[in-house]
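for the recovery benchmark. tokens below, seq after
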């Protein structure tokens, strides 16, 4: 039984593609986010690598509003305060960030709260604590976080078989891995460089969404 909130209902999302937008980064976070919205991503995450200036916070607030109007939840990585400040749909936290209960108290019962859970035991705990979804990775070697150990689809399957929450696969995901990960039970596929490093941001998102659509579910 959850102590707050409900699991993320996948029927609310228009696709399993979950684009994580880094800021600052070589590609404009705002360009990546808008291409993701236009290309059909189902979920966005904004990951700030430092404090935001007033103009950046205003731009993020605008993005949260645009995302809401398009029915695409925007989550903030790590910072519950920033999520609340800009009106985001929720937050994604790691094991060393704010506990789920505190994030839920700050953001409300309807907020989407995801947690990074590299083990089955941590995923089970996150479910008991009221997470909306859990994330497992790295699935494959990741150019964004090369230091992360590769857990692979076998760990994904183990978590999927253990919890009733949607499970997000992350780490090194490209179009070619979409069928394998969806077959392993992933509900969400989190991508970073597969979009942000592409020559055509919009086409990269469209190709990922189309790959999901081709997999029977």
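predicted aa per position
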């Amino acid at each position: 039984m959850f102590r707050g909130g409900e699991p993320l209902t996948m029927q609310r999302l228009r696709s399993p593609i979950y684009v994580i937008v880094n800021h600052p980064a070589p590609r404009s976070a705002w360009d990546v986010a808008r291409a993701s919205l236009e290309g059909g991503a189902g979920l966005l995450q904004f990951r700030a690598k430092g404090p935001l200036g007033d103009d950046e916070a205003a731009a993020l607030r605008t993005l949260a509003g645009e995302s809401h109007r398009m029915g695409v939840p925007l989550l903030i990585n790590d910072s519950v305060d920033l999520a609340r400040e800009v009106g985001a749909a929720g937050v994604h936290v790691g094991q060393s960030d704010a506990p789920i209960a505190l994030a839920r108290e700050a953001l409300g019962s309807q907020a989407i709260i995801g947690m990074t859970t590299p083990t089955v035991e941590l995923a089970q705990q996150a479910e008991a604590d009221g997470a909306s979804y859990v994330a497992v990775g790295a699935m494959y070697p990741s150019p964004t976080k090369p230091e992360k150990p590769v857990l692979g689809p076998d760990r994904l399957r183990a978590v999927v078989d253990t919890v009733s929450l949607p499970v997000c696969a992350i780490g090194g995901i490209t179009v070619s891995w979409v069928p394998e990960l969806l077959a392993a039970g992933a509900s969400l596929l989190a991508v970073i460089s597969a979009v942000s490093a592409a020559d055509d941001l919009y086409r990269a998102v469209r190709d990922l969404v189309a790959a999901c659509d081709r997999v029977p579910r």
